[in-house]
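4.2 Preliminary Data

To establish feasibility before requesting continued support, the project team ran the inverse folding procedure on a target of 255 residues. The structure was first converted into the token representation described in Section 3, and no sequence information of any kind was made available to the design step. The complete token record follows.
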């Protein structure tokens, strides 16, 4: 397991106005959490980090460090939950991916993953290359370049410049389209609860949203599931091997 992630200055950019919560700035609370963690006071560190989140600030590093603190307490479901939250904001971070893999090796359920189709793997590998905010900034950049080259095409009187402007505008328009698509995909992942982590020690997955329906299989604490339909206090899930069923909503924590 890789240790506490340093919170670089860019993480604290939103805190520069020195907003205070309960008499302490978010920066001060993060400093207290880091100190508690390094002293081995993991429950205290968790409380400090949660106060930062409750004040309205979040970052991949905060979720990552929360995951580490829960890991140190041997609470794998909570550790996995916060590592997954961190991945939503930093989908290609190697430290997060490594620690998540270690945490998943400590839980009961070892589920064979159904491999994605090649185009699904290709699509995922690209949109997770950068966080959603980065794709959004790239979209702005490519859109600006597209408009600039379009202006060159429309305003230039030289044939060479018009051709260069036309083809460059097409290329930048294509880049703008894909960067927008990747930014939208990341935004959707961050704002919609499409997955969850099992928090009950064991939960029986049912064939329908009814306690008297057929038992299909059992999942244990820490297992990640995909969330589909919901009905009353039941939710339909899908696990990595493709199996589906229904579980009570209270047994999961969504992310």
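Position-by-position output of the design step:
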């Amino acid at each position: 397991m890789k240790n506490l992630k340093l919170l670089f200055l860019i993480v604290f950019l939103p805190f520069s106005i020195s907003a205070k919560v309960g008499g302490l700035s978010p920066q001060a609370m993060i400093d207290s959490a880091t100190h508690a963690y390094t002293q081995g006071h993991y429950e205290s560190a968790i409380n400090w980090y949660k106060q930062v989140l409750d004040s309205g600030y979040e970052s991949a590093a905060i979720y990552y460090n929360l995951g580490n603190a829960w890991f140190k307490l041997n609470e794998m479901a909570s550790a996995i939950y916060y590592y997954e939250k961190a991945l939503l904001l930093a989908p290609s971070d190697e430290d997060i991916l490594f620690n998540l893999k270690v945490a998943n090796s400590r839980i009961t359920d070892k589920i064979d993953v159904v491999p994605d189709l090649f185009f699904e793997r290709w699509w995922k590998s690209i949109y997770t290359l950068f966080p959603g905010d980065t794709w959004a900034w790239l979209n702005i950049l490519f859109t600006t370049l597209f408009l600039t080259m379009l202006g060159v095409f429309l305003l230039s009187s030289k044939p060479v410049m018009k051709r260069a402007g036309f083809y460059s505008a097409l290329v930048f328009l294509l880049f703008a389209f894909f960067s927008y698509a990747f930014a939208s995909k990341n935004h959707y992942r961050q704002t919609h609860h499409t997955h969850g982590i099992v928090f009950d020690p064991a939960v029986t997955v049912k064939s329908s949203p009814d306690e008297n329906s057929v038992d299909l299989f059992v999942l244990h604490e820490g297992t990640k599931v995909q969330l589909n339909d919901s009905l009353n206090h039941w939710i339909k899930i899908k696990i990595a091997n493709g199996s589906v069923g229904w579980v009570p909503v209270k047994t999961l924590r969504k992310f």
